């Protein structure tokens, strides 16, 4: 009896905890049998109606958009789009961008910084760091003896001027051929051993602060070096923040994560793949961080939404020329223009003979073939014989058409500018009061057909999938403690 009583007490405690969890984050709606928690809805609503959003929606208005979104995701799951390798790869990439940085602790980053410091300290050794300034006169390794003598005389002249009291920085700005340092008066950044040419390093490290070298030759030319400062490497604690920041910029957390990932896969002895390890890490983070959990869900559902929408609406509308023509023919009155347009070309040629030649070239061709015909006839190679602008123009779109077709005053054709290389302007085409066919307003027709397909699709999804909304819970959005 005691064992039974203890078991019953434990069951009651567990049930009580579950009830508490459910009451603190109740189900706000169920879509196709899948519950949506209030916190998930709030995450989406607040993210899309936060600071900077111009057209903010009320909770009731947003419910419609959110439900439609979830219905499309349900359709994508039914179509098993989540099993596509392309989807899995893209989702893993987004997920890993969030997960990998969390796999590296601050302590591990600091340890890497310490290692970098120790390596640098060992490389520098007792010689320390130097900050020299120099004047360089370049000399090619293939220079003749005469050229070498000429550069040697110039550097000796510069050295004599410096010994006579000339300002090193001003002279470096005037004569040094190291463009990067010359603008700074010849000053170079801090240098460690083995970071520069051996000939330069040997001379520079032999100088004390304020001391200047005689001219000397390196593989790049003649130098004169003035030692500005010398120092030993600062203690780690004084450089720690700088080193850590540098490592962070170089992606150290990702490097640490990759190392740990490989180690976990190896230690599993073939039981785990890298993908499984990353998913475990993702699940672990999502269990304790709602923001991250819903961000993962957003990545997941957003990729599915894009794929299913492309198939059902976007590609279907933009690639089905028969459907576009049929839509246009049925809704012609929606595409009337308020003012006539000019369907044709404005072109610019060098000779009067080409004015007629252009017209003859395209006269009997469909409008959509004009551009290719003109290109192959007049501009088949790098020699441009004519310049052409093709399209459906309204007043103000093209200066030449404004002037020759719409007879606008020259001042109104603000973009008109004569081209001496192509001095003769001409036009060919016709004025039209309304579009001839859907290709004249193709983008608008595509958008209208997409809107129609979207509406039809959503209506079908709402018939196919059951949607239940808890209106009482909906009233508590962003109003609970």
Can you describe this structure?
The chain is an alpha+beta fold and 481 residues long. It has 19 helices and nine strands. The chain has a three-stranded antiparallel sheet with strand order 2-1-9. It is flat, with a radius of gyration of 37 Å. The chain starts with a helix and ends in a 7-residue tail after the last helix. Mean pLDDT is 91; it is low at 1-22 and 412-417.
Quaternary? single chain
Overall mean confidence score, pLDDT: 91
Strand segment tally: 9
Distance between the termini: 42 Å
Q: Helix and strand succession?
A: HEEHHHHEHHHHEEHHHHHEHHEHEHEH
For the largest beta-sheet, the strand count, sense and barrel status come to: 3 strands, antiparallel
Structural class by helix and strand composition: alpha+beta
Computed Rg: 37 Å
Number of helices: 19
Report the principal-axis shape. flat
Spans where pLDDT lies below 50 across 5 or more residues:
1-22, 412-417
Strands ordered across the widest β-sheet = 2-1-9
Give the proportion of residues in helices.
Answer: 55-70%
In percent terms, what proportion of residues is strand?
Answer: 5-15%
